[in-house]
What we know:
Blueprint: E1 3-9, H1 15-31, E2 35-41, H2 45-51, E3 58-61, H3 72-80, H4 89-96, H5 98-107, E4 116-118, H6 120-124, E5 133-137, E6 147-149, E7 168-172, E8 177-184, E9 187-196, H7 203-207, E10 212-215, H8 222-239, E11 244-251, E12 262-268, H9 278-285, H10 290-299
Parallel strand pairs: 1-2, 1-3
Antiparallel strand pairs: 4-7, 5-6, 5-7, 8-9, 8-11, 9-10, 11-12
Helix pairs in contact: 1-10
Amino acid sequence: MKRVAVLMGGASAEREVSLVSGRACAEALRAEGYDVTTIDVGRDVAALIAALEPHPDAVFNALHGRWGEDGCIQGVLDLMGIPYTHSGLLASALAMDKPMAKRIFAAAGLRCPGGKLVTRADFAKGEPMARPYVMKPYNEGSSVGVRIVRQGDNLPPLAAEWPYGLAALVEPYIPGRELTVAVMGDRSLAVTELKSKTSFYDYEAKYTDGITEHLVPAPVPPKVYDAAMAMALAAHQALGCRGVSRSDFRYDDTKGDGPEHLYLLEVNTQPGMTPLSLAPEQAKHVGISFRALVSWMVENAQCDV
């Protein structure tokens, strides 16, 4: 019987979501016949290493956000020689660093919004670009800290109360529709349109039942659907991802109905695995059960040694 350790929790802003993902994955893997242990990961690396002795056959990495999704945990597992799910150290680090990921997407010919890093001192001198624009942490996921600045909005005193660490990523706001595509190995699964009852698809909309409607397959023109599928796979490959990833898009149908109005926002190398999560939903849409999905991820676990 293959022994699997599920890493969950963590110290990021996405800790609670990770705990839900980890419990769901552990339950599914046990139902598939794996010998499963769960590890609530903190900032103590020595404690993590001890918890992984003796080495399991594979680690299911259900961590989200910083330290679990950005290459840190991946580096520890590489050093220990333990295969793990999802992307390796380099792809994880590149995807989490949004400005660096943009450069890679541009080099691959993938359309994404422009943007720039802005420090607190920069912002104190004036707004970084014409409204509307989006401010976000350059190294977080799940829309943590994302703010859309629209015409007429009153800005908080960001020069004094700066929630973005070293710098914020500022991008022009793309109006239109929210789309997402999961990639499993070498195939895109489906396109989902997300219709949120909040102002945009933020953290609350992602993880609160009933707030966001998931339309799969997305009711968009076939050329846009096909372009999203192709761009998601291309982005996955450009970053060097493996396992399962999920790419997020904006489709600006206010300017027309062609694929030239489709913009790649980012790639999530460890998409959520909760009951409301999009990658499992798309897998189910193409005939892959949740248990089969997580089993495939374990059987395809790797480490960079």
